[in-house]
Amino acid sequence: MDPINPGPEEHGQAHSRRPPRESLTSDFGHAAPAVARTAQLVSDDLLLTVNPVDGSEIELCPPAERPGRPRKRTAAERAGTERAARPPVPPGPAQPAPSLLERQDERERLVRLLARGRSVRLTGPGGSGRTALLDLVAEDCLDLAPDGVVRLSGFHRTVGDVLHDLFHAVHDAPHHRPGRDELLGRVGEIGAVVVLDDLEFGGAALDELLDATPECAFLLAVTPDVPAPSADADVEEVFLGGLDRAAGVEILERTVGRVLTEEEANWAGDLWFESEGLPLRFVQAGALLRQRDELRAGAGAVDEYGVFEDVRPPVELPVDSVDEVPLPSLGEAAAPAPLLASRLSGSARATLRFAVALGGEVPHQAHLPALVGDTHADAALGELAGCGLVSPVGSRYRLAAGVLAQLEAAGYADDAEDQARTAGRHYAWWAGHPSVTPERVCAEADAVLAALTGILPGTVPPVEGEEADAVRLARTAAPAFAAGLNWGAWERCLRFGAEAARLAGEVHEQAYFHHELGVLALCGGQLDRARAELEASIGLRGALADKRGTVAGRRALALVADRAGEVPGPPATAGEELPEVRHEESAPPPYAPLGESVVTQVVPAAAQRVGFRRLARRNMVAAGSGALLAAVLGTVVTLGMTSQENADRNPASKVDVNPSASQGTDDGSLGADPKKDTGGNGTGSGRVVPAATGPGPDGTYGTTDDPTPPATAGPSAGPSGTKHPGGGHTSPAPSGSKPTKPTKSPSPTPSKSPSSSPSSDPSPSPDPSSSSPSSGTSSSPATTDTASGPASSSSSAAAPQSSGAGSPQSSGAGSPGTPGTLM
User: For the whole model, what pTM was predicted?
Assistant: First the structure.
């Protein structure tokens, strides 16, 4: 056989030994699911493990894993952090930096106040140039404070968010979110000039921010609708107004790149009066003049080469010649967004539609090619920035002031729901990709949350096998926000996700969001809210039989009880367990004493917030048990009192000094005083309970030192120490013991029935349990320590019912003659 060139007879056999060739399209099959990305964070004294599958796990942080004192960043590191906080430079030709006109006095005043350590509040309407002025002032204050200049954004940020942003901007503390006390201690040591743009709070919240940072000087940029500082706040107020007419004309000439004509100058004067001198309006008006110049220059002359094909508007301008392009009307100049957008490229207009659908948030330029469907769509951001339709906010761009309302009026919001759904699906895929870091997702937090807000109202139960878009987006973005330490966005995403899961009918996802909200509240010290969210999650997961998720929720709930100082109640006894109660704790929670296990009891309920506290539930069980015990004792006492009323008619209830066997009680003492233990008879109770013996000389029964109570005797009398058919057992009397001599006083003899005689039908002795402990003459009943105690007590309850005429008690039992039988 030739292994290289097989013959015809070997062809089939040779091919059968070859390994099968892999298909060329095998690599295009379904890839293995990506491993869930988990992250560990330290929040105060808690260790948080972000688990995007079953829910985050939280526990007390071991001392070895607690971070030390955070290190402050160096000047070079602070410069890198500041560059990262600025918005990216739009692609395309470099745009000239806008010069600041008529703002030199405000600039110098702000620097002087900050150099003296004073905080300043710069108030100006949208489009007044606040952000451009802040950039210049920040450059002038680089050397004023030991920790330099820190640039932060206050857009959609709370006081806590700003304090945490300040902490991480100055300190190098990855994966560490300090607690409230530690946070206040660290930011209180920071000495920096904090430039906070687009601040949205004032009053008491601003006082809290200033009190927490006594060594910082703040430059706050706000709009007039933001609440003013309190009367006691040490904050200087600087108002930023509009420009004069000459400055507006200069902005137009710099934007167009030439001197204005007389007609254009008059048009600029009318615009200045209409816009109150806001610089943004002159930038947008300059873009209108620049587009008009392009049309007048005959841009269509080179259109045959396709150079400006994408620039051509969708509808031709109604003019006979490009030389006759008129100036925009005053209304178009006051609201120039629709006219400016109509002369931009198709990618730029599509980007504006996405921005309108996202509430003014402009997606990052890296997402535009995927969203728009054009590989060169990232250049659209440069077009929008050059026209003044977008403005920087923090590290991203938003639609400029007034542009959103103008575009909505022009019809750009007609397909907002579809655009938001497209953006939501894209962000859901992007946020869950393994190559995307949590920090990048946090940088796009506002756009992601805006997409979630847009698609939430239209959430409906999906078809089988699919997942609602809003639920999927919140499910993938929430763990990234948590790992990236943007917990303000994390909380908003979780609340949106819980509502979306409720609308979609996805109970499993709803339980996940409630669990995460409980963990977040626990990290923030909100124990009541944490308990409510966790109990709701445990109830939902219990209804779904989600064992792993339920265990995670119970562990977090145990930590809530530990931090609240709650003490676990006593464990439930046998027979007290309610239906559908689970016991799944491999180890006692941290607050349980050593060697004592605590059982967490949860009654699951679907789609409702259900959960009982262990203490309340066990108290209810204990109260029920106490009520049941009281009822039983009351019944016993009542029966005893009833039997005592019939003592005169029932001879068996009478006890004399020398009792007979027919007068025995259920405790086996036969009404006699128990004899003290004098010689170790093996009872272990410290006393000897007398037992019935044969009849004495006077025909009555005496007692011996036999420790076995009469209740253990069988239905018929037999030799001492033998077992009787009734299951009872008598012990032989100790050797050498003498029977107790009975007294000579005869016991009353009950009347005999005519049908009973000792010779023909010996009457059995009455059951020693026929009398309750309270029916005798003794003040307290005697007790026994033998194993037959429960049997005796059970028979005593039925004794009063059998004490009437014709019963064994009234049939001559105990008379001289044949010995009676103890029942």
Answer: 0.66
